[in-house]
Design a protein that fits this description.
The protein is α/β, with parallel strands linked by helices and about 250 residues long. Helix 3 runs parallel beside helix 4 and helix 4 packs parallel to helix 5.
């Protein structure tokens, strides 16, 4: 069994790579930095076959190249992405568009390419890394939350298409809350809630993935938050999120 993981050089992607390797999966690790990918491979050791694929996926042509070069996979983990904090009128548009490219366009493109292959073979699994942010609006991180809303909505829709066609291909979405990674440094925030370790999130995720779960939501507190989102008016949710987001400002 082979897993392809984007954004595999750090954070959740790195921890997922280590956890998949621990359970016997061969790996294709994708990220921009070859040196950081080598560090992940050294941690994993010789337990499984690890192929490193350093490439900048922000260039859509590189998504096509990746797919052309790496065809035979069993699981695609769409993990590459980053966040951005600030008032919508203050954030830099070029950085927002770069985030949309990575969080949406790259995920969409790779999902399309590999899902078509999997449907033809009638087997395979795609894990799209979203966030609890994907279920609500996010003032002060509006574009980031919107990208994760896209990931959740797209995954839910495609899941139903696969179910209706009686396909054996599975799809899952990982929706964590705060995780202790370099994400907050890149986004320019400091979470008021203590984040879970990326190692714990990875262990939970791989376990639920093997069981075919669609919504993978680590932590009872985040599960409760998602449930409350169905019962609280959107206007109130938005105010609550704004209050919590304001605490993150570094």
């Amino acid at each position: 069994m082979k897993v392809l993981i984007t954004g595999a050089s750090s954070g959740i992607g790195k921890s997922l790579a280590i956890e998949f390797a621990r359970t016997g999966y061969d790996l294709v690790l994708v990220a921009r930095s070859k040196d950081k990918l080598k560090e992940v491979k050294e941690i994993i050791g010789d337990k499984v076959h690890v192929e490193l694929y350093p490439i900048d996926l922000s260039d859509i042509n590189n998504c096509i190249k990746l797919h052309n070069d790496i065809k035979d996979i069993d699981i695609l983990v769409n993990n590459a992405g980053f966040g951005l904090f600030g008032e919508f009128t203050d954030t830099v548009i070029d950085k927002e568009l770069a985030m949309i490219d990575i969080n949406i366009k790259v995920l969409h493109y790779l999902m399309k390419l590999y899902l078509c292959d999997m449907v033809k073979k009638d087997k395979g699994h795609i894990l799209n890394v979203a966030s609890i942010a994907g279920f609500m609006p996010g003032p002060l991180m509006s574009t980031y939350y919107a990208t994760k809303n896209y990931v959740v909505s797209l995954s839910e829709a495609v899941r139903e298409e696969l179910r209706k066609s009686k396909s054996k291909v599975k799809i899952s979405i990982l929706c964590p809350g705060p995780v202790e990674t370099n994400f907050d440094n890149v986004a320019g925030v400091s979470f008021s809630l203590k984040g879970k370790s990326s190692e714990d999130v990875a262990k939970y995720t791989v376990d639920k993935l093997k069981k075919g779960k669609f919504y993978i939501v680590p932590g009872w507190d985040i599960k409760v938050l998602r449930i409350l989102n169905f019962f609280i008016p959107s206007s109130l949710i938005t105010r609550i999120v704004y209050y919590q987001q304001r605490k993150k400002n570094k």
